[in-house]
């Protein structure tokens, strides 16, 4: 039964089924109030990289809570925050060396946009525009919405969103013979725009656009993008809120693609699924433009819970686990691929793609391929009755599994998908 005083996100009140009440979570599994077990195939919105309720993270929070639970972060610091900063910059490309904390993916993006814009402002240069990509999603706050694709989800606010130039994202898939052409066209278009010298930064989800439908591009595209960004001195922001922490089969999409952005946004996987935390990490060059004796050059952005010690303790434990599961996240691409080849001939599937832990397929739709396509809703319902949590994005069915997933569970998921697709009206 829907609670009379709760408002759930992404719910059309009249048509959505009642929310399912979750009693507990363990590893990749959730247990509902009625005892039904459901395999979380999307890591609860891509957050729970180690599955649910990992005892090591729970213990780390418990220990930290007895020492320091929260403290103002302006003018104060603490061990858990310093340790996160020291460790993160070790895993990130060399130039990224200043860590700014916030609370969630959207705010990590807001911070990156403010840093990039004010970076030029502080140097008395007028670069009023951002370049973003079609199909992008960067969060639900106003700045993040502005640099995301306009969609039915933003429609009510479109008049309020600042103007952004959008370039085509050269999405590719298995057997795509046009990818180089799409990349060349995108790069040519972007280079022409950047040549105006009016762009503060380019922002994108590198290698995989998430909420826009798990659309994947090649590392080569990111390398070319970096080259033209450097030529025009435009900053490059990588939103790795989803792709960070092993999701693309390497520590980060930028390390997998061998590209060094000027700013990177991280959240979801950083937290291990326990407490909200995010960071925007920038280069020393950017930091230097804010760090001066002139008051008006400071970055005036600080959340109440900035660098919350409990969140940092959870993130440190999550990083430890990530190191221990490196072989698992590096191996997931091959595990997916072995199974995806068997789906390639399924008449319900139009296109397949896979990068690291992320596997996605576009389903054939009769008519409307948009967000509210019926096929997504049908799959959501049918998968639950098979004990799988799948939430297609429109007609895109995808998997984003926790790293604790076993071969047997993978088999269960793929055979479940086979059965669900066979049960759909053709
Ligand atoms: N950027 C990307 C790439 C995301 O996938 C998301 C969340 N799906 C966000 C930003 C926003 O993160 P949050 O929901 O934590 O605000």
From TrEMBL:
Entry keyword Aminoacyl-tRNA synthetase: no
Cofactor: pyridoxal 5'-phosphate
Keyword Cytoplasm: yes
Residues that bear N6-(pyridoxal phosphate)lysine: 268
InterPro entries found in the cross-reference section: Aminotrans_3, Aminotrans_3_PPA_site, BioA, PyrdxlP-dep_Trfase, PyrdxlP-dep_Trfase_major, PyrdxlP-dep_Trfase_small
Database matches in CDD domains: OAT_like
Subcellular location: Cytoplasm
Amino acids binding substrate: 45, 137, 268, 302, 391
Annotated site location: Participates in the substrate recognition with KAPA and in a stacking interaction with the adenine ring of SAM: 10
Catalytic activity: (8S)-8-amino-7-oxononanoate + S-adenosyl-L-methionine = S-adenosyl-4-methylsulfanyl-2-oxobutanoate + (7R,8S)-7,8-diammoniononanoate
Protein EC: 2.6.1.62
Gene3D superfamilies in alphabetical order: Aspartate Aminotransferase, domain 1, Type I PLP-dependent aspartate aminotransferase-like (Major domain)
Primary localisation category: cytoplasm
Pathway assignment: Cofactor biosynthesis; biotin biosynthesis; 7,8-diaminononanoate from 8-amino-7-oxononanoate (SAM route): step 1/1
Keywords: Aminotransferase, Biotin biosynthesis, Cytoplasm, Pyridoxal phosphate, S-adenosyl-L-methionine, Transferase
Family, similarity comment: Belongs to the class-III pyridoxal-phosphate-dependent aminotransferase family. BioA subfamily.
Role description: Catalyzes the transfer of the alpha-amino group from S-adenosyl-L-methionine (SAM) to 7-keto-8-aminopelargonic acid (KAPA) to form 7,8-diaminopelargonic acid (DAPA). It is the only aminotransferase known to utilize SAM as an amino donor.
Matching NCBIfam families: bioA, PRK05964.1
Subunit structure: Homodimer.
Protein's name according to its UniProt entry: Adenosylmethionine-8-amino-7-oxononanoate aminotransferase
Source organism: Almyronema epifaneia S1
Gene: bioA
């Amino acid at each position: 039964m829907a609670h009379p005083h709760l408002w759930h996100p992404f719910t059309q009140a009249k048509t959505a089924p009642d929310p399912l009440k979750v009693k507990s979570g363990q590893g990749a599994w959730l247990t509902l109030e009625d005892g039904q077990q459901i395999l979380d195939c999307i890591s609860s919105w891509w957050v729970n990289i180690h599955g649910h309720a990992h005892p090591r993270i729970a213990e780390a929070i418990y220990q930290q809570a007895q020492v320091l639970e929260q403290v103002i972060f302006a003018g104060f610091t603490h061990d858990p925050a310093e340790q996160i900063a020291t460790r993160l910059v070790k895993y990130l490309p060399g130039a990224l060396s200043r860590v700014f904390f916030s609370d969630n993916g959207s705010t990590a993006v807001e911070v990156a946009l403010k840093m990039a814009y004010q970076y030029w402002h502080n140097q008395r240069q007028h670069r009023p525009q951002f370049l973003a990509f079609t199909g992008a999603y960067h969060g639900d706050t106003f700045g993040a919405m502005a640099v995301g694709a306009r969609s039915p989800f933003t429609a009510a606010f479109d008049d309020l969103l600042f103007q952004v130039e959008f370039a085509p994202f050269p999405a590719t898939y298995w057997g795509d013979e046009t990818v180089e052409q799409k990349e060349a066209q995108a790069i040519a278009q972007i280079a022409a725009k950047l040549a105006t010298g009016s762009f503060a930064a380019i922002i994108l989800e590198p290698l995989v656009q998430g909420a826009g439908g798990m659309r994947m591009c090649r590392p080569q595209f990111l390398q070319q993008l970096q080259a033209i960004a450097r030529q025009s001195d435009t900053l490059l922001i990588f939103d790795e809120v989803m792709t960070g922490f092993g999701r693309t089969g390497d520590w980060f999409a930028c390390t997998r693609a061998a590209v060094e952005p000027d700013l990177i946004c991280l959240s979801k996987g950083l937290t291990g699924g326990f407490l909200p935390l995010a960071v925007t990490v920038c280069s020393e060059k950017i930091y230097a433009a804010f760090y001066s004796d002139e008051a008006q050059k400071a970055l005036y952005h600080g959340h109440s819970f900035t660098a919350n010690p409990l969140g940092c303790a959870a993130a440190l434990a999550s990083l430890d686990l990530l190191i221990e599961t490196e072989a698992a996240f590096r191996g997931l691409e091959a595990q997916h691929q072995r199974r995806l080849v068997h789906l390639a001939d399924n008449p319900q599937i139009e296109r397949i793609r896979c990068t690291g832990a992320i596997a996605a397929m576009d389903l054939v739709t009769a008519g409307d391929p948009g967000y509210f396509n019926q096929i997504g809703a049908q799959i959501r319902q049918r998968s639950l009755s098979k004990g799988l949590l799948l939430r297609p994005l429109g007609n895109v069915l995808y998997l984003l599994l926790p790293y604790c997933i076993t071969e047997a569970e993978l088999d269960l998921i793929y055979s479940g998908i086979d059965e669900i697709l066979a049960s759909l009206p053709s």
